[in-house]
Amino acid sequence: MDTAFLNMSLETLEGWLRETDETRLETLWTAADETRRAYVGDEVHLRGLIEISNRCARNCAYCGLRADNKQIERYRMEKHEIMDCAHQAKGFGYGTVVLQAGEDFGITRAWMTDLIQTIKAETGLAVTLSLGERDDDDLTAWREAGADRYLLRFETSNKELYARIHPPAKGKTVSDRPAILRRLQALGYEAGSGVMIGIPGQTYASVAQDIDLFRALDLDMLGVGPYIAHPHTPLGEDKMPAAPANEQVPNTELMTYKVVALTRLVCPEANLPSTTALATLNLANGRELGLLRGANILMPNMTPPQYRVLYEIYPAKACIQETARDCHACMGARIRSIGRTPGTGHGGRKHRVPTGESLFLH
Ligand code: 5AD
Ligand code: SF4
Ligand code: FES
Q1: How many domains in the chain?
Q2: Which of 142, 178, 204, 280 is the most buried (most CB within 10 A)?
Q3: Would you list the DSSP string of 232-265?
Q4: How far, in Å, is the centroid of ligand 1 from the Cα of 313?
Q5: Got the DSSP string for 71-115?
């Protein structure tokens, strides 16, 4: 192995996405796994996911939380409920809590600032925010309050497809998420992004471009999951066109692993979760296969059961009936079953040359 993987061209990336030969694919899985071990090691960092609100002002064409979906009951967690989860995360030995919600402007700058400060003061955990496209003043205030990381998937790098599935916010034009990610980096956040795989209209060439954009933006975290149709959304109701058959990327488990593996090869230092959407397609061992093909992060769900069932971004989501304690035990067992170890510490991005075999230094 050499630097060839790091610098893969768009043509090579697309070739891998279209690869069907199992022996060749084994070489991809092995390269991704070796690169993962060399750069980020055998620790699997656990991020306790708290879905703090399912309210959303936006109308993404694929998402069950979209404002126009009147068929779900909405909630916003209270501060004391979130603090209970944060303390539980600390007790489980996690290094990070991820506070995720729809674009909920009932979550105000001041309220969030206070929450971040309280979590930092009482637990010392790393705090990751995943709250959608917020004002620059909000992002600045929350960073100053101590938030460490921010997640905002760009979903697809294809501008035309992006615009089709992301109606702008009221009074605004179509958003530029790569620009927001650069701004998050400038504010000193570790910035995370990601895409869905198999969006109707998404081509092989555009997924190759997505991976290339991960590399160009030098992101710290990258989440990749299959697109899963939600019946109460325009995209799920088949109201939007697929690409021609030989161009349309399928929303399969296999395609998702290919993107995870290629992402590890071009962004070797990044933190890559094995996602819940992947587990939804393969509950038995989707998470493990993600971890064996480039991923090094798991995000156990800590949302209290009465809210968890309402955070239905897509149907039949994995872990919907479980408690935080169930997910904690389940994740630990899965990590040990593949000979890896639960991470200690915050598990932030490592900037370093690989250890062990110096795969990229010759
Ligand atoms: N299928 C898969 N992933 C989805 N997300 C939203 N809706 C769906 C869906 N129908 C993902 C988006 C978003 C993340 C929080 O959930 O990528 O960024
Ligand atoms: Fe809202 Fe996020 Fe869903 Fe879009 S993807 S509708 S911003 S929760
Ligand atoms: Fe939640 Fe397995 S990870 S129950």
Answers
A1: 1
A2: 142
A3: TSTTTTT-SPPPPTTTBPP--HHHHHHHHHHHHH
A4: 6
A5: TS---B--HHHHHHHHHHHHHHT-SEEEEEESS-TTS-HHHHHHH
- Residue 179: pLDDT over 90: yes
One-letter amino acid at 128 equals T
Backbone φ and ψ for 297, nearest 5 degrees, come out as -135, 145
> What percent of the chain is predicted at pLDDT more than 90?
93
For the four alpha carbons of 331, 333, 339 and 340, in that order, the dihedral sign comes to positive
Tokens describing residue 354: 């690989």
How far apart are alpha carbons 191 and 222 in whole angstroms? Answer: 9
44: nearest Cα among 325, 345, 354, 256: 345
Report the CATH number at residue 311.
3.20.20.70
Indicate which residue's Cα is closest to atom 2 of ligand 2: 102
Confidence (pLDDT) at 344: 87
Give the separation between CA 151 and CA 55, rounded to whole angstroms.
Answer: 18
User: Of the bound ligands, which one is closest to the alpha carbon of residue 235?
Assistant: 1
What digits encode the pLDDT tens for the residues 125-160?
999 999 999 999 999 999 999 999 999 999 999 999
Within a domain: 360 = no
pLDDT of residue 361: 37
Let me know if residue 303 belongs to a domain.
Answer: yes
3 band by pLDDT with thresholds 50, 70 and 90: confident
Instruction: Give the domain extent around 29.
Output: 3-340
In a domain, 352, yes or no: no
| Domain-embedded: residue 247 | yes
* Mutation choice for ligand 3 from 330, 335, 336, 337, CB with most ligand atoms inside 8 A: 330
Q: Is any ligand 3 atom within 6 A of the Cβ of residue 326?
A: yes
